């Protein structure tokens, strides 16, 4: 091993640890490693920037826009909402729901599908007394499996396709991955409808859980004329930095002031609504001129009126809130909303709201204005933003939806026939949407997840460093020395397991980019078909079922489903074994 190889190996190990422990946003961690490789001279400028001009990465960017245009109409949500209403029984409802959703995710990006359907399915479950936790992990898994059927089903497939093109190979055909993805999806869904359904926990829905907890963390105090800070600001009255308590609303006759700013004037007769730790409420009661309002039980419904509502929002991997406390993020002024409670691992965090350091997957209960949903529905800071009492809204006219869907299907047909490459077809689709005013340039910009693109492009540079220094060939040689005597099928198992481990620890696209150079080096040493290794890596990088952090869709349902980390292991581990055995078996039969 050379010094350069050792440096790259140490940097990659540090990157994996930083990603696992969520030191910073994933895109910033990988980009930092890329910059170090560049300034150290291990990579030239051209090598470091190879990912930013990669066809697969740019196709992912265009696909974000195409998927956004199709989903903007709400056709998909409208169809599935009506379809759900006809369902009878939980298991039959799962079959009716997840079979078509798997089909949809073969052609649309699975992340926006899960974002759109999480509040719809959760609300549907709560209305019928079903546990949403029985449905939301299967929603994520169904879209992941459906995404393995086609080239455009997931960004991972397009990233691997782009890398193959960089190696002067043919890349994937539109339905080439279906030889593994289709049987995997069928068997995986059968598992979820039978064994998986029994293993899944039956946690209470968010609304019911919040209502039960309301009496534990909501407190109402009345301001008496004797309160020494009447006609003073909230800050002057010492109500801003209370230990373990947080002022979320002031009710003044028929007026409700929420969120409450530091400069809000306190008046006699005000009803102050606090959220916080139960033990700290007694301390607040001792304050002269503040009396605990008794005789009524405060509920979540009491906080709402026509101008504000309770909203659930899930912190995303790309969120600017990540690793900040709510106070540091200046949440109230930034989003014009007050945080009522924060849930993590199916439990409300027992701490002062302002001091809670947010993590991806945290579920926030917010008291927000009526325009909050519209403003932050597509914000990169949140995965899911939905009112507790209503599913997502549907806006556009059906005609635009049918036109968008028609353009997408036409582009898929053109690529399948071979008239245009995937990148050319998606670029043409975006142009048609813009010219036809299906979307505006501003909307197109909002649909693109730039943090994801930075992560993918930076990972390409890291993968290039593995290649250029010979580290990929060195790792491949080590794997071969152990696995070659046992046969190529054992090597395929090694490749699948290592890719899947990287996916669970970091992210799917980054795992694929790191593993492709190793897989292709092994194929070259064995004089074997490299496409078999590429298919194995593409499927393994997508098949993230064991942790909520490996794949975005798993994290999206983490908070709304009230899951614990262990729930993913219980349900996902058998599915991971099924996916590995099926993938390796099919690839070995077809390619070797």
Automatic annotation (TrEMBL):
<dbReference type="Pfam" id="PF02080">
    <property type="entry name" value="TrkA_C"/>
</dbReference>
<dbReference type="InterPro" id="IPR036721">
    <property type="entry name" value="RCK_C_sf"/>
</dbReference>
<protein>
    <submittedName>
        <fullName>Di-and tricarboxylate transporter</fullName>
    </submittedName>
</protein>
<feature type="transmembrane region" description="Helical">
    <location>
        <begin position="505"/>
        <end position="523"/>
    </location>
</feature>
<keyword id="KW-0472">Membrane</keyword>
<feature type="transmembrane region" description="Helical">
    <location>
        <begin position="447"/>
        <end position="466"/>
    </location>
</feature>
<feature type="transmembrane region" description="Helical">
    <location>
        <begin position="530"/>
        <end position="551"/>
    </location>
</feature>
<dbReference type="InterPro" id="IPR051679">
    <property type="entry name" value="DASS-Related_Transporters"/>
</dbReference>
<feature type="transmembrane region" description="Helical">
    <location>
        <begin position="478"/>
        <end position="499"/>
    </location>
</feature>
<dbReference type="InterPro" id="IPR004680">
    <property type="entry name" value="Cit_transptr-like_dom"/>
</dbReference>
<dbReference type="Pfam" id="PF03600">
    <property type="entry name" value="CitMHS"/>
</dbReference>
<feature type="transmembrane region" description="Helical">
    <location>
        <begin position="402"/>
        <end position="435"/>
    </location>
</feature>
<keyword id="KW-0813">Transport</keyword>
<dbReference type="InterPro" id="IPR006037">
    <property type="entry name" value="RCK_C"/>
</dbReference>
<feature type="transmembrane region" description="Helical">
    <location>
        <begin position="571"/>
        <end position="591"/>
    </location>
</feature>
<dbReference type="GO" id="GO:0008324">
    <property type="term" value="F:monoatomic cation transmembrane transporter activity"/>
</dbReference>
<feature type="transmembrane region" description="Helical">
    <location>
        <begin position="51"/>
        <end position="70"/>
    </location>
</feature>
<feature type="transmembrane region" description="Helical">
    <location>
        <begin position="174"/>
        <end position="200"/>
    </location>
</feature>
<dbReference type="InterPro" id="IPR031312">
    <property type="entry name" value="Na/sul_symport_CS"/>
</dbReference>
<feature type="transmembrane region" description="Helical">
    <location>
        <begin position="6"/>
        <end position="21"/>
    </location>
</feature>
<feature type="transmembrane region" description="Helical">
    <location>
        <begin position="28"/>
        <end position="45"/>
    </location>
</feature>
<feature type="transmembrane region" description="Helical">
    <location>
        <begin position="135"/>
        <end position="154"/>
    </location>
</feature>
<feature type="domain" description="RCK C-terminal">
    <location>
        <begin position="298"/>
        <end position="382"/>
    </location>
</feature>
<keyword id="KW-0812">Transmembrane</keyword>
<keyword id="KW-1133">Transmembrane helix</keyword>
<dbReference type="GO" id="GO:0006813">
    <property type="term" value="P:potassium ion transport"/>
</dbReference>
<keyword id="KW-0677">Repeat</keyword>
<feature type="domain" description="RCK C-terminal">
    <location>
        <begin position="206"/>
        <end position="290"/>
    </location>
</feature>
<dbReference type="GO" id="GO:0005886">
    <property type="term" value="C:plasma membrane"/>
</dbReference>
């Amino acid at each position: 091993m050379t010094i350069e190889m050792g440096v790259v190996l140490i940097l990659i190990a540090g990157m994996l640890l930083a990603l696992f422990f969520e030191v910073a946003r994933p895109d910033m961690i990988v980009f930092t490693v890329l910059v170090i490789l560049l300034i150290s001279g291990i990579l030239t400028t051209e090598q470091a920037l190879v990912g930013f001009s990669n066809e697969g990465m740019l196709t992912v960017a265009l696909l974000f826009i195409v998927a956004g245009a199709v989903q903007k109409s709400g056709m998909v949500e409208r169809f599935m909402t009506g379809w759900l209403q006809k369902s009878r029984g939980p298991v039959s409802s799962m079959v009716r729901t997840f079979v078509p959703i798997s089909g949809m995710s073969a052609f649309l990006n699975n992340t926006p599908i899960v974002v759109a359907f999480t509040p719809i399915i959760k609300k549907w479950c709560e209305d019928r007394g079903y546990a949403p936790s029985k449905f939301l992990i299967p929603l994520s898994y169904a879209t992941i499996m459906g995404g393995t059927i086609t080239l455009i089903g997931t960004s991972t497939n397009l990233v691997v396709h782009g890398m193959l093109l960089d190696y002067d190979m043919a890349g994937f055909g539109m339905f080439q991955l279906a030889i593994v993805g289709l049987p995997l999806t069928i068997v995986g869904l059968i598992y979820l409808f039978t064994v998986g359904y029994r293993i899944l926990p039956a946690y209470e829905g968010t609304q019911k859980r919040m209502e039960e907890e309301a009496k534990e963390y909501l407190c109402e105090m009345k301001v008496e004329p004797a309160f020494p800070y009447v006609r003073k600001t909230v800050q002057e009255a010492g109500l801003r930095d209370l230990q373990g308590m947080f002022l979320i609303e002031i009710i003044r006759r028929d007026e409700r002031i929420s969120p409450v700013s530091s400069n809000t004037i306190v008046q006699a007769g005000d009803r102050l609504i606090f959220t916080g730790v139960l033990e700290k409420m007694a301390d607040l009661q001792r304050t002269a001129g503040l009396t605990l309002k008794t005789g009524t039980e405060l509920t979540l419904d009491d906080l709402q009126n026509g101008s504000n509502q309770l909203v659930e929002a899930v912190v995303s991997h790309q969120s600017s809130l990540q690793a900040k406390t709510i106070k540091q993020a200046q949440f109230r002024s930034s989003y014009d909303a007050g945080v009522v409670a924060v849930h993590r691992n199916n439990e409300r965090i027992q701490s002062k709201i302002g001091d809670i350091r947010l993590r991806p997957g945290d579920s926030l209960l917010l008291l927000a204005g009526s325009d909050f949903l519209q403003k932050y529905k597509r914000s990169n800071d949140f995965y899911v933003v939905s009112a507790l009492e209503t599913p997502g809204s549907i806006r556009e006219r059906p005609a635009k939806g049918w036109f968008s869907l028609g353009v997408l299907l036409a582009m898929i047909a053109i690529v399948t026939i071979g008239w245009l490459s995937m990148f050319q077809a998606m670029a043409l689709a975006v142009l048609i949407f813009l010219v036809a005013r299906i979307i505006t340039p501003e909307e197109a910009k909002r649909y693109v997840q730039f943090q994801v693109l930075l992560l993918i492009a930076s990972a390409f540079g890291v993968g290039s460093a593995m290649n250029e220094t010979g580290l990929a060939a060195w790792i491949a040689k080590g794997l071969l020395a152990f696995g070659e005597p046992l046969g190529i099928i054992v090597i395929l198992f090694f490749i699948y397991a290592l890719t899947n481990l990287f996916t669970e620890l970091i992210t799917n696209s980054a795992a694929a980019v790191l593993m492709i150079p190793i897989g292709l080096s092994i194929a070259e040493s064995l004089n074997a078909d490299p496409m078999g290794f590429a298919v194995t890596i593409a499927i393994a990088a997508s098949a993230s079922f064991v942790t909520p952090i490996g794949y975005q869709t798993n994290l999206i349902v983490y908070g709304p489903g009230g899951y614990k980390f262990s729930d993913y292991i219980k349900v996902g581990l058998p599915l991971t074994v099924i996916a590995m055995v099926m993938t390796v078996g099919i690839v070995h039969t077809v390619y070797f």
